């Protein structure tokens, strides 16, 4: 209700009420101005007491209630001189930001990234305000002569990964200050990826796009159209250069490339499941010669693809690390769309860049894949696909912890009490549930009945195999079967079942041991001394004798013309152990592949969901783990535990929920760093052995 000042002046009782209300408001005002000296606080009280217009009092009252000054400053020191850094540091980040908002300055809270920035701003504000109070008689804080511009955060430079600046220590002061968990993880990201700190500093300084793109440090990781964040792909990704696992790695003849790292559906920052192995060594087998290959050298390894989710063909076109025409094998773990929908589209792209007279594309996957692929290609009349053949993995059982529901409709559900029984030494062994014929309407049961014959007009050639399980393999675990997928002499591929809601497998790529290196420093001087004699004996290229010595059988020897005897064990190093790469499909438990995976050089394991304290509300780590397993998936802890169980040397996590972005923003990288920390704790591996993968990450697999 609004009153006019003339009526208010004639109504003494209302004036008394107004005075009492103003007196009450003065207490609120007094609590809001405890930062000022007593002289200013008293003048503010008098000002409110003299207000005679009720509408002005109501307006000020609402303003004070909105800012909640009394609540915000209830715990402030009585003396402004006591407003020290220690006191401000003891407050929470939210409290600091609320106090900054209450100051009613022009500062943007978003510019104050860290807790230390908030502390610096408030401290400087109070220092300047306290110095100017003696010159100000007005009680309105907005009329203070303090600069309202935000205090620019000083550049903290680019410390190396082994920084001398401790997390939680103010750059301006030597004594440590308290920091929030968010500040700590941001600082870890800054130390791990120095250009991220530099980018944050220059953006806050108002740098223009031209300045950023001319910066020698930042420009390699940026795209002209997106200059406010890093957007480089593959080798231009800032993580590729600075991540602890990758920064010190040298090139190798075997690379692992994560083409897609998301689950369910592709997004702006992540494609769905696709992992590539780029084999670059000279193959020692009897593979067919590629058309146009000069000489009699065998075919090089090519590229093997594991899973081919929706939009994989787009992902591959975005990177120069994978050429579609070089893909020689595709392995599918299970039928879900985020692992198979991209297969027909990728084959169409491959057909445009592939010699149709060359070796066929070899495709491996669970039974039913052959008929499904025939249907897709025939329905879309895709004659452009390259020659291919499908090898089906037969009789993949469901894990014993999965059972059909009461409806018995062919759908399986995870039994939450299974692991408890397992801990009580009542572990169930793998059986034959879920095989073709059990559910008469399932695809694997109906596919053999579909009369759709192979047709070379649509790319499929003869030679596709049905690969049946082996139950007495020495690497079997708990009765789970093993499939011997491929044996190419120098490389063998195996498969074992995963614990998922549909038949699913994981693959093991096992490189055979390689011959030891020849110690040329010992053999070459002897060979050079005998060059003339070797030529006289009919050898056109005497130095080729070194290859002959390297290929000597164990215990063999060679005698040079001058009588020097060279023994194989003295000049040839011991055989080098082959590498092992394990790529699991979707799984809540990977125990069935543990026998094959022991001592893996690289374990690629899904980590769909994670519990992040401070972000995930109304849940817990145990509940997150249980929910992931119910849906047939894993957490970073599960992935880390399995890596520890098999003694893996490196852990690569993928198949992340869409809630985890894959870009190079500070927020995204801080979350993925926390996911890595959870896996590090569970696996016992160091931070340079664990990575939460991003799209187009290239990881060389070093020789043993």
TrEMBL record:
Residues 135-166 are annotated as: Disordered. One of its GO terms (cellular component) is nucleus. InterPro entries: Metallo-B-lactamas, RibonucZ/Hydroxyglut_hydro, RNase_Z/BN. Residues 305-346 form the Metallo-beta-lactamase domain. Its cofactor is Zn(2+). The keyword Translocase does not apply. One of its GO terms (molecular function) is metal ion binding. Residues 135-147 have a biased composition (Polar residues). It holds the Pfam family Lactamase_B. It comes from the Eukaryota. Keywords: Endonuclease, Hydrolase, Metal-binding, Nuclease, tRNA processing, Zinc. Homodimer. PANTHER family: ZINC PHOSPHODIESTERASE ELAC PROTEIN 1 (PTHR46018). This is Metallo-beta-lactamase domain-containing protein. It comes from Chaetoceros tenuissimus. The lineage of its organism: Eukaryota, Sar, Stramenopiles, Ochrophyta, Bacillariophyta.
């Amino acid at each position: 209700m609004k009153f006019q000042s003339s009526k208010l002046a004639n109504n003494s009782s209302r004036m008394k009420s107004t005075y009492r209300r103003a007196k009450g408001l003065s207490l609120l005002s007094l609590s809001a101005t405890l930062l000022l000296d007593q002289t200013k606080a008293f003048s503010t009280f008098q000002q409110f007491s003299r207000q005679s217009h009720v509408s002005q009092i109501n307006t000020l009252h609402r303003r004070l209630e909105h800012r909640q000054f009394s609540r915000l400053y209830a715990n402030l020191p009585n003396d402004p001189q006591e407003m020290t850094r220690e006191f401000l540091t003891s407050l929470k980040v939210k409290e600091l930001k609320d106090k900054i908002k209450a100051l009613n300055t022009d500062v943007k809270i978003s510019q104050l990234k860290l807790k230390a920035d908030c502390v610096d701003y408030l401290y400087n504000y109070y220092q300047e305000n306290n110095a100017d109070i003696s010159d100000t008689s007005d009680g309105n804080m907005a009329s203070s002569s303090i600069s309202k511009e935000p205090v620019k955060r000083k550049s903290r430079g680019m410390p190396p990964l082994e920084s001398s600046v401790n997390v939680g220590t103010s750059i301006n002061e030597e004594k440590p200050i308290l920091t929030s968990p968010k500040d700590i993880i941001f600082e870890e990201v800054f130390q791990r990826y120095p250009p991220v700190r530099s980018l944050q500093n220059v953006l806050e300084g108002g740098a223009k796009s031209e300045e950023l793109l001319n910066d020698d440090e930042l420009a390699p990781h940026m795209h002209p159209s997106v200059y406010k964040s890093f957007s480089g792909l593959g080798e231009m990704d800032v993580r590729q250069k600075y991540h602890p696992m990758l920064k010190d790695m040298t090139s190798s003849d075997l690379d692992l490339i994560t083409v897609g790292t998301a689950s369910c559906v592709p997004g702006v920052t992540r494609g769905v499941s696709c992992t590539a192995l780029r084999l670059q060594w000279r193959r020692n087998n009897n593979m067919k010669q590629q058309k146009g290959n000069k000489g009699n050298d065998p075919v090089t390894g090519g590229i093997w693809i594991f899973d081919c989710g929706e939009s994989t063909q787009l992902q591959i076109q975005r990177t120069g690390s994978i050429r579609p025409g070089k893909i020689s094998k595709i392995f599918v773990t299970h039928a879900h769309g985020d692992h198979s929908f991209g297969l027909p589209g990728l084959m169409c792209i491959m057909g445009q860049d592939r010699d149709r007279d060359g070796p066929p594309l070899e495709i491996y996957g669970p039974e039913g894949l052959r008929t499904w692929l025939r249907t897709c290609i025939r329905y879309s009349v895709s004659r452009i696909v390259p020659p291919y053949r499908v090898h089906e993995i037969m009789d993949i059982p469901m894990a014993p912890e999965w059972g059909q529901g009461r409806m018995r409709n062919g759908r399986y559900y995870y039994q939450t009490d299974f692991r408890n029984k397992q801990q009580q030494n009542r572990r169930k062994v793998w059986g034959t549930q879920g095989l073709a014929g059990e559910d008469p309407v399932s695809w694997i049961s109906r596919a053999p009945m579909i009369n759709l014959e192979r047709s070379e007009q649509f790319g499929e050639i003869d030679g596709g195999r049905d690969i049946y399980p082996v139950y007495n393999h020495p690497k079997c675990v708990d009765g789970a079967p093993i499939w011997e997928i491929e044996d190419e002499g120098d490389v063998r591929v195996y498969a074992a079942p995963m614990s998922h809601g549909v038949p699913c497998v994981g693959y093991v790529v096992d490189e055979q041991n390689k011959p030891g290196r020849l110690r040329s420093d010992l053999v070459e001087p002897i060979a050079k001394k005998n060059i003339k004699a070797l030529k006289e004996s009919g050898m056109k290229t005497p130095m080729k004798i070194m290859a002959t010595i390297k290929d000597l059988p164990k215990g063999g020897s060679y005698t040079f013309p001058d009588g020097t005897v060279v023994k194989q064990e003295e000049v040839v190093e011991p055989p080098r152990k082959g590498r092992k790469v394990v790529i699991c499909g979707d799984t809540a438990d990977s125990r069935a592949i543990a026998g094959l995976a022991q001592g893996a050089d690289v374990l690629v394991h899904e980590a769909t969901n994670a519990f992040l304290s401070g972000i995930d509300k109304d849940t817990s780590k145990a509940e997150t783990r249980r929910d992931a397993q119910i849906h047939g998936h894993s957490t970073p802890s599960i992935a880390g535990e399995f890596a520890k169980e098999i003694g893996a040397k490196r852990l690569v996590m993928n198949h992340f929920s869409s809630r985890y972005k894959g870009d190079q923003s500070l927020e995204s990288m801080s979350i993925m760093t926390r996911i890595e920390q959870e896996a590090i704790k569970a696996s016992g591996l160091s931070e340079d052995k664990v990575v939460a993968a991003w799209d187009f990450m290239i990881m060389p697999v070093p020789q043993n």
